Structure formats: structure tokens, C-alpha cells
Amino acid sequence: MITSTNPYTQETTKTYQQMTWDQVESKIILAHESFQSRKKTSFTERKQLMNNLAKIMQEQFEDLAKLDTQEMGMLYKDAKGDVTKSASNIAYFAENAEKILAPKPFDQDGLTWEIVYQPKGVIFSVMPWNYPFNQVLRSAIPNIMAGNVVLMKHASNVPQIAEKLEQLFDQAGFPKWIYTNLFLPHDFTEKIIAHPSVIGANVTGSDAVGRQIGTLAGKYLKPSILELGGNDPFIVLETTDLDTIIKQAIKGRFSNYGQKCNSSKRFIVIESMYDQFCEKFTAAVNELKVGDPMNEATDIGPLAKASAVKDIDAQVKQSIDQWAILLTGGQPWSAFGPNFYLPTVLKDVVPGMKVFDEEVFGPVAPIIKAKDLDDVVRLANQSVYGLWCSIFGDNKENKEYIAQNVEVSNAFIDKVVTSYAFLPYGGIKNTGYGKELSEHGLKAFMNEKVIVK
To answer: Is there a single domain that holds both residue 280 and residue 205?
Structure first.
């Protein structure tokens, strides 16, 4: 049984039966049959359906945002952005896919040849709960626009959104089985990946999930994209405008209560700015308002799961035992319910502490002191993850130096990291491999065929 529970009120609003294997296999076969006609459709037809989908989401964005808030606890004012950004990404791929996937002719060494991009088939996609619309559509839309079809296993704590997404595709006029929602137990994963009609796997989630599905994809010789954990550094160099950087730091860490793959999770501050940053950042954190996610005045709502509160508290407590200094927060806050954890700041954090070494998926900000630029790079790179990075300061050359040397896939200078449809999204190290979004997302599960004439 899959249950939808409001993280704020703890009210169970709906339950769903998990599918049997016979039901799942039937959907795989139907998706494969649908692909046979789907791959022959024109980009004009695909574009029209995508524009229909974007329009429907914009028309329903308030109701869809409310579902975000009720099912995973996102601030309602931010949930509107989850929906509208999804619609914007859809519009981008609808407009640009044909150009990006156009045949590329060549004439070299006496040969005339071209590269053509052909869809492969049915993709098994496993997506998380933290941005329930955008995460799913970030994966599904490029693949569907390219001519593939998608079987979607959404997170089990957002089943109403999973169901709604399938309904939105239907409302937009997509043929059945182009996008198929699966309510299934985890023990069906290997059978799905092994199925001859499934050509690959696209996963966003934890290291553990990524290792499992990446291993299975390798076992059955299926391509995969893994977008896993992150421990992104937010780097503060010397500056005369610390107040502006503090505002960006709050946004980078506490947006969606820190439940983002690309949240700013480690604050690495040059020694000359360290004490001032700790003081001003802590004061700003203490101004954050905790409470009802539907209230426009709220900054910090409930975490999506009660288990997250327990996990985060253990990471904080162990780090304090390792001599990190608590500046504020550091405990669950049951005044609003069991899923709340106070916005927390720790300073004098060093490698080896839990909040330095591990991804903390919640409202906890560890601050680390760096002696110089090379120490900044050393500390930033002392992580098993390599997703994104934000770099702030006054000296342009120093920021460029950090951007060139930090081990991440995207480095944002004087900006908090965020995703764009036209930029590749993915990471290195234990963050996984492959890219979503951009032309890379469109081509990820395509046959790049060379035709020599």
C-alpha cells in the first residue's frame, strides 16, 4: 500500500495499491508498442503536444502548487515556482529539440556522411520527492520530445502528484503509454531493467539507489544516467558587500528547507571574513520564520518525512560531539509537528565531521574556515561528491581561479546555483554520471547513428 500523508498536518489523504508484476509487465509491453508509432511522429506534432502540456500546467499552477505543499510540505509560495519552472522547461524543449537533433552532415577525406539521432525506446525513470513536478519532467520531457517513451517510478511519498502527472499528459492529448506512472515495490526494479523492451534507466536519488540501479543497468548492458547526492560548497572570498552575500547564502541553503540536490551545503569562508560571516549569517538564520507552509510569511516548513528529522539530528549531534560549535538551532521543533527541524548553524567545522563529510538534506549550515585560496580549493574538493558550487567575492581573478579548480560540474560565480533548461545538469564523483537537460538530456538515450554515403 502507498500512502499520501500531509507532512504538516499528518493527515493521510489517499492510499494506492501497488501493482502486481503482471500489471507492470503489461504496461512495459504497451509502452513498447506505443513507441513503435511514437518514434515516427514529426517534431511538429510532438511540439504541439508539449505546448499543450505547458499551457495546462500554467492554467492549473495554483492547484498543482497546492498539491506540492500538501503532499511533500514545500512552501506554497515556492511550489508555484516548481510548477511554472516545469512549464518553462517544457516550452524550451518543444521549441529547440528539432534543431538540436537535426542530422549533421560532414564531408571529409573523400567521404560524405552524416550523424542522425534516433530514439531507442522505453526508458525506466526513478525520481525523488523534493521537487515533485520539476524533477520528473526534467527527466521525462527531453526523452519524450526526442521520441522515446517513459515509465515513471515516482517517490512513494508523493503518489497523488505521480498520479496527477500522468493525468496531465492525458489532458494534453498525448497518446496513451507515452508517459506511464508505476506504483510498484522496489523489488520489481531488476525485472524492469532486465526486460528486453526497456532500453535504459534514468535516476535521480540517493547514492544507495544510484548504486543499485547503476549496477543493474551494467549487468543487463543498459545505458543509465545517475544524478545522486551533492555536498555543494558556497565559497566566500574577501568582499566589501557581505550583506548581499549573506542574503544569497540564506537562499542557497534554506530554499526548500535544504532539501535540494544542489543546495549550498558547506560554507567555506576565507579567514579574513570568517568571524563576520558567522555573526551575520547566524543573525539572518534567526530571522527565519518556522511554521505552516501555506502561510506566505513562513520560511521554514516541515521536512518531507519524519525519518529525515531523526537522520539530520544525528548528523548534527555527532558533529557537535566532534567539536563543531553550535551557533543556533540544533534540535527538532515539535511545536509545529514531528517533521520540523530548527534552522541550524555550526561553525569551526572540519573534514571528518558528519556535517562536512555527508550530505545533510535539511536546514543545517556548516561553516568552514579557509586560510587562503588554495585551502579553499582543498576543502571544496575534500568531498566524495561533485555537483555544483557557488563562489562569491570582489576579486574577479580569484573567483575564476576557484571556478577552474573546484571539482564540480557547474560553478556559478556571484550567483546561487540553479538549473536552466539549456545547461547540462549532472555531476562527477559519487554524484553520479551523465547529464539531464540541455542537448545532453535530449541525446542521452538516442542512437547516434553515422550514415556514410
So the answer is: no
Q: Are 351 and 265 in contact (CB under 8 A)?
A: no
Percent over 70 (pLDDT), the chain: 100
The total of structural domains in the chain comes to 2
> CA-CA distance, 32 to 337, in Å (whole number)?
45
Query: What pLDDT band is residue 21 in, cutting at 50, 70 and 90?
Result: very high
Query: How sure is the predictor about 373, in pLDDT bands with cuts at 50, 70 and 90?
Result: very high
CATH of the domain at 271: 3.40.309.10
Is 261 one of the annotated active-site residues of the chain?
yes
Q: What is the pLDDT of residues 205-246, one digit of tens each?
A: 999 999 999 999 999 999 999 999 999 999 999 999 999 999
pLDDT at 110 > cutoff 90: no
What mean pLDDT comes out for the span 25-35?
Answer: 98
Q: Is the pLDDT of residue 109 over 90?
A: no
Whether residues 131 and 271 fall in one domain: no
Set 71, 261, 278, 389: catalytic member? 261
Q: Which of 353, 356, 135, 359 lies closest to 230 in space, CA to CA?
A: 359
Residue 448 annotated among the catalytic residues of the structure: no
Determine contact, residues 125/213, Cβ cutoff 8 Å: no
- The residue segments making up the domain with residue 249 are 232-413
Burial of 12 (0-12, 13-18, 19+ CB in 10 A): exposed
Q: Is 130 helix (H, G, I), strand (E, B) or coil?
A: coil
Rounded to an integer, what distance in angstroms lies between the CA atom of residue 185 and that of residue 61?
30
Write the CATH number for 118.
3.40.605.10
- Selecting among 45, 166, 227, 407, the annotated active-site residue is 227
236 and 212 belong to one structural domain: no
Q: What is the pTM of this model?
A: 0.96
Locate 319 and state its grid cell: 558533529
Q: Is residue 422 part of a domain?
A: no
